[in-house]
Design a protein that fits this description.
This protein is of the alpha/beta class. The protein has two domains: 450 residues, TIM Barrel, CATH 3.20.20; 81 residues, Sandwich (Immunoglobulin-like), CATH 2.60.40.1180. The protein is built from 16 helices and 28 strands. It has an eight-stranded parallel sheet. The protein has a seven-stranded antiparallel sheet with strand order 1-2-3-21-24-27-26, with no helix packed on it. Helix 13 crosses helix 15. It is globular and about 80 Å long. The N terminus is likely disordered. Pfam families: Cellulase, Glyco_hydro_5_C. GO terms for molecular function: hydrolase activity, hydrolyzing O-glycosyl compounds.
């Protein structure tokens, strides 16, 4: 539970670090809650077929869990040492019924989850989540009426091949859990398809691309952004008096649409137009995407990921929209055609302005400078109208971020670099060859380098800014769910989750080396050991908790997966500034170096899972007193002198 020493109060930004109200350096080590918040409750997961016809009447109350279960889950997270939640919600959850029709009951429910998190010592920042725009276009986020407002008929997306949707392609009657019609981790290919690209292009640059396209008298860009930001404000109104709610994420993993691409550009490899590695899926040009929406048949190269190299490569061609199904609603026109981007001709079309998505009379169009930059400021202004000290957690497209694309400048004050990072090979191929010895050190060093790229996104910001890795993690269905088979066969030892624990441990080693804040992806309360279900969304299965591991409700570790990998010591609050921290899982030793302040207090989380018999502590370089609360798993050090101080911990039986 929260303590009286203010550990769960408001935080401030001090250059690259967070500070609490006592001026201590804070490390946020949290988790995303949770993966199934992307879908309605109780039966809205992608493990069930749906045509989305109920999109205006669904409810998200119960995501991430029913209120009756909240304290149990939150207590488990606090026991595991997490002090922060990236708490998911979606635009759809709040405004699914129609424009301006907010789900007050859901908003009250979400606010109550926030309030309860504070009672367990957990900071919260609000994450408005989306993936490839919406559930209706293969992901999550925006409500269905947003497509209708623009003029797209999402009921035709699958038939016209303009979106890759599990509920439309997966054969739920088949006993096969993995199916070629919906390859694992294929949902990201929707970034290449026009249902997704149209919405992002209009969201970021509708005023420049389609200045005459208005909805209810407002340009489409302003209409969409104002509706989205209006939902953020609805949450802000309900949580503004909770000091442990520290801020808002701007928008999860935003898409780019067609912005920056020539009309006939085909992204099949990193190049001068787009230096980022291409995603899987059809390599459509913007013009071909527009023609698909008009009901034209298009043939394009198809890219898949090579399991040997990890790179996406052309693997033949694919024919799309063989049924010649138009997607624009009756009586609605394509706004890009109306703006003079292209025209139909014969069985196809031609570009009238090859640089339509790249420039206009006002100059070049840059999605980061002209789209995301102003949007970040708009979000900051809107939420800070309700509480001035909220932090802004900003992120760009993760592929661009992991490639070193800088954040737009200038950012609003008190911004946090909240980019994402994954071991891409482990994520996409769902296998991890457990390294040993020098090979393990090499993997750890690679993680340190890759995280450095994401951390480096903040370098251009004047005065620096903290970095919090908003998402990282591993699939638990590695090797076709080998751990699940072992569990079902009765195995319970460390070996069941051996590869998972090693992978997570190496990731946290790298986080420690860079002193990074982070929120692990993810904790899904409804998760199952089932290759179809997983986290309840597009067969992803990255949850550190599963109902199938919950055998003893009295044991706070029960339900956990690879707990030894992610539950480990770290300095939650340092009485000064942390210089370095390292933990060796094999020996149980940790070492913390601090530039301490006289009389200040440092709190180190020391978990019983690694220290069942307590911890032996030694200090050097500065007088200090310490006390270990075994029940709270908390080591408290009071610094008697200012200056460099080293704190070492070990198991009592360590040689």
């Amino acid at each position: 539970m929260a303590n009286e020493d203010g550990r769960v109060g408001r935080l401030a930004v001090d250059g690259p670090v967070f500070r609490d109200q006592a001026g201590r350096h804070v490390i946020l080590r949290g988790v995303n809650l949770g993966g199934d918040c992307k879908v309605p409750w109780p039966d809205g997961g992608t493990d069930r077929p749906s045509d989305f016809s109920d999109h205006r009447t669904i409810s998200f109350i119960g995501r991430p869990f029913p209120l009756a279960e909240a304290d149990t889950h939150l207590a488990r997270l606090a026991h595991w040492g997490f002090n922060c939640l990236r708490l998911l919600t979606t635009w759809e959850a709040i405004e699914h019924a129609g424009p301006g029709q907010y789900d007050a009951d859901y908003l009250d429910y979400y606010a109550e989850i926030c309030a309860r998190a504070g009672r367990f010592g957990l900071h919260v920042f609000v994450d408005f989540h989306q993936d490839v725009w919406s559930r209706m276009s293969g992901g999550d986020g925006a409500p269905g009426w947003a497509f209708e407002a623009v003029g797209l008929d999402f009921r035709q997306f699958h038939r016209a091949d303009v979106a890759h949707i599990m509920q439309a392609q997966y054969d739920y009657a088949s006993p096969e859990r993995r199916q070629d019609a919906y390859p694992q981790m294929s949902w990201g290919g929707n970034h290449r398809l026009p249902a997704n690209a149209v919405m992002w292009s209009l969201f970021w640059a509708g005023k420049r691309l389609t200045p005459d396209f208005r909805i209810e008298g407002v340009n489409v860009q302003d209409y969409l952004q104002q509706a989205y930001i209006g939902c953020l404000e609805q949450v802000a109104l309900r949580v503004r008096d909770m000091p442990h709610v520290i801020g808002f994420d701007t928008l999860n993993e935003p898409g780019l649409g067609w912005l920056g691409y020539p009309m006939n550009y085909r992204h099949v490899a990193p190049d001068a137009v787009n230096p980022v590695a291409p995603r899987v899926g059809p390599a459509l040009t913007p013009l071909e995407g527009l023609l698909l929406l008009r009901g034209m048949t298009v043939e394009a190269p198809r890219l898949l990921r090579n399991i040997e190299t990890g790179r996406t490569e052309i693997t033949g061609n694919v024919t799309l929209n063989s049924d010649r199904q138009p997607v624009w609603l009756p009586g609605r026109e394509c706004p890009f055609e109306a703006a003079g981007a292209y025209r139909l001709e014969g069985d196809g079309g031609i570009a009238l302005r090859e640089d339509y998505f790249q420039a206009d009379a006002g100059g070049s169009i840059d999605v980061y400078r002209d789209g995301m930059g102003p949007f970040f400021h708009g979000v900051a202004d809107a939420v800070r109208a309700h509480r001035k000290d909220w932090l802004l957690f900003v992120e760009i497209d993760p592929f661009a971020g992991m490639s070193g694309r800088p954040l737009p400048t200038p950012l609003p004050e008190a911004s946090v670099n909240a980019g994402h990072w994954y071991d891409v090979r482990t994520l996409f191929f769902k296998t991890f060859d457990t390294p040993v010895g020098e090979a393990q050190a090499a993997v750890r060093d690679r993680y340190v380098r890759e995280l450095g790229v994401v951390e480096g996104l903040a370098d251009a910001q004047p005065g620096g800014m903290p970095t919090l890795i908003g998402e990282f993690g591993i699939p638990f269905d590695l090797d076709e769910g080998a751990a699940y088979e072992a569990w079902a066969a009765g195995e319970r030892g460390r070996d069941v989750w051996g590869p998972h624990s090693t992978a997570l441990g190496l990731m946290y080693d790298a986080m420690d080396r860079r002193l990074l804040n982070s929120t692990l992806w993810n904790y899904t309360a409804s998760n199952r050991n089932d290759l179809l279900i997983g986290d309840g969304w597009n067969q992803e299965d990255l949850s550190i908790f599963s109902l199938d591991q919950l055998e003893d409700p009295a044991d706070p570790n029960s339900g956990g997966r690879a707990v030894e990998g992610f539950c480990r010591p770290y300095a939650q609050h340092a009485g000064g500034t942390i210089r370095s921290f390292a933990f060796d899982r094999d020996t149980g030793r940790f070492e913390l170096d601090i530039d301490a302040l006289e009389g200040a207090q440092t709190i180190v989380y020391v978990p019983a899972i690694h220290y069942p018999d307590g911890v032996e502590v030694s200090t050097g370089g500065g007088a200090a007193e310490w006390d270990f609360d075994r029940a709270a798993q908390r080591l408290t050090i009071v610094h008697g002198e200012a200056g460099p101080t080293t704190i070492r911990g070990a198991r009592p039986d360590a040689p």
